[in-house]
Every structure is written in C-alpha cells, then in structure tokens.
Amino acid sequence: MPQPQGAALEAVRARREELRARYLHGRPARPATTARGIHHVAFICRDVEETIRFHQEFLGFPLVEIVENRDYRGSTHFFFDIGHGNLLGFFDFPGHDHPPFTETVGGVQHLALSVSDEQYAAARTALDAAGVAYVGPDRGVEESLYLHDPNGVPIELYRERLGVFNGTPLVDDAR
Hints:
Helices cover 25% and strands 24% of the residues. By secondary structure, the chain is an alpha/beta fold. It is globular. The two termini are 35 Å apart.
C-alpha cells in the first residue's frame, strides 16, 4: 500500500497533532472509561477443528466453551481464554462462502496479544517446529511477532504488559 510522502505526509502529521491537542486528555483530566473491558472479540473461521488446534497448540489458549450459535442453526461458537477474564471467540457459518482475509476499513488490522517473554519464546519454538510463517522480531520491533491464524486473522504476539505501549503506561491499571 502506498505511503504518503512530502507535503501529503506533513499534512497527515499536522492533522494528527491537531487531534492529539483536541482529544487526548492526560491524567488526571482524562475521564474514566465506561467499559469494564473486552468480554470477547469474535472472528469468523473456516474450519472449527483447525482453528481450535492452532490457538490451543501454537498459542497456548485453552478452549473454554463450544456451543451452537444462538442465531444461526448449525453454526459453532467457541471461546478461548486469553487471560485476565478476556475471551477470544470464533464462529463458523456452514454454507457461506468466505473470501480470503483483506485489510480494509472496518476490518481487523491485527489483534495484539500481550505475552510474557517465556510465552513468546514458546510460541516461536512451536511455530518454527511446525513451519508456520511469521515476521518479527527482524522488522526492527524486538518485542513483536506477527502471524496469521488459519483463517487469515492477523495476530501480534507483543511482549509488553497490558495497558502499556512502547514502555509507557497508557492506563492506570496497566499490568
């Protein structure tokens, strides 16, 4: 995808600074959030078993529930525990065509998951042993590894604590 350059790049950067000045409230002026957190994020999968095996075996996320979808007969809805009360969910929709993943407005750019150094190393070892492709940390970002699950969902394994970005806590309860 082409990146802005020259005057167009400077205009984008200036607009970002305008937005920062207008909307980014530092502590203590920042209002409290109205949410308790992410209950679950739900993606669509092509193959239930393939998705379960990938997320359990390579990423270490235990499957915690598998049921029929409430509003689509025959569809399976299932959840993985991704820590701190957060769930990663998937649906399959038998009978539907599913085009390949595409990065687009309203789509997912990536799902960043906080992992410990030990979990990061274990995931790399498992992915290497199985020949699963990923990028990083060779991209100059030492704390991140990027891959796609079997459904094309882009995932970042990020060796940064929850609520922290580039070493800076962004929320009061950063873990």
